[in-house]
Amino acid sequence: MSITLKDVEHVANLARLELSDAEKSQFTDQLNAILKYAEKLNELDTDNVEPTSHVFELVNVMRDDVQKESLPIEKVLLNAPDEEDDQIKVPAVLE
Asked: Name one Pfam family in it (predicted).
């Protein structure tokens, strides 16, 4: 697979980039060099390698959820700028 000048122009257009002819040519060469380097991965013997989603084993560092008492509504409403019917009143978003 190789990148053409037309491919670079298309991506630049999608990204709303204005590139000079020299920049288009430079990016075409650079992207093709990157793809050529990535093709080296095809030389690796991966027959006995088990597929993984991460290189290292993931460990959950989150604590367990613990159910506990909520604050009393009176205490919560002390911090509210405005309240109505035991609920925090906020400005209307939609009219």
From this structure: GatC
